[in-house]
Amino acid sequence: MTQPSSIAKEFSSSRGDRRVRVQVGNQQGKGFHALTVAEDEIQGVAEMGQNRSALVLRSGTEIPVALPYEQLEQKIYERDFRTDGPVLDLRDVTGEAARPKAPANTNTPPAPGDKMPDGTVFAGISPDTNKPMYATPADASFTMTFNEAADYAEKLNSERYLGHDDWRVPKKCELDVLFNNRAAIGELNLSGSRPAGWYWSATPRYADFPWCQNFRDGEQYQYGKDFHSSVRIVRSDP
User: Fold this and answer.
1) CA separation for the pair 69, 56 (Å, rounded)
2) 3-state helix/strand/coil string of 11-63
3) Are residues 94 and 133 part of one domain?
């Protein structure tokens, strides 16, 4: 694994103006509080296993994060439309959220937002298949045209991403499930801005005009296939 310190040197010198917000444990060991650090205080990213990682500060402090190593590394070192700003807010994946969950009772059905053992996120029941539906842990890194979104799903299938080869762009009714459970699922763009705040479905209204959905207020509208939207890929149980 690349040593975080060697990456952090370039990171700090070129992007030293960004701030990172996290939740850290109180000294009394009870509860958490918000903390903001300058990005040049970050030495690197550490692997913790069980889909957990940590921000390593130059002081030696490790801040657990409820994200796999690769995802946290991407957020820190590769900006995109969700993190390209003066503040990278990790409060929802640090603190209490970063504590490893107790093993789930196999008799208890998952709730929307639950992280499954394979790394997928339970999104809800698909109205199309009436079966459990699972989403990728995060959106595609960039907005895409409709055809690019379909190609992206096929790319995940060819790589057997998270051990599966049945990934797809959600249908219109399934996209509405993602919207309704958006707070629990997380890692979705809720700004409502175009194009990043809209998401593709696989359902056409007209031949070349598939449905999209605004994830701020739930509005659904048809756009031409060359429109760029955000993409969250899903799969269902067989």
Assistant:
1) 12
2) HHHHCCCCEEEEEEECCCCCCEEEEEEEHHHEEEEEEEECCEEEEEECCCCEE
3) no
Structure tokens at 13: 């010198």
Q: Are residues 222 and 127 in the same domain?
A: yes
If you count them, how many residues does the chain have?
Answer: 238
So what's the pLDDT on residue 164? 95
Give dist(CA 56, CA 11) in Å, integer: 14
* 131 contacts: CB under 8 Å, gap ≥ 6: 125, 236, 237
Say yes or no to pLDDT of 12 above 50. no
Q: What is the mean pLDDT of residues 72-77?
A: 87
Query: DSSP assignment of 98-146, as one string?
Result: GSPPPPPPTTSPP-TTPBPTTS-EEEEE-TTTSSEEEE-SS--SS-B-H
Segment 110-156, tens digit of pLDDT: 899 999 999 999 999 999 999 999 999 999 999 999 999 999 999 99
Number of domains making up the chain:
2
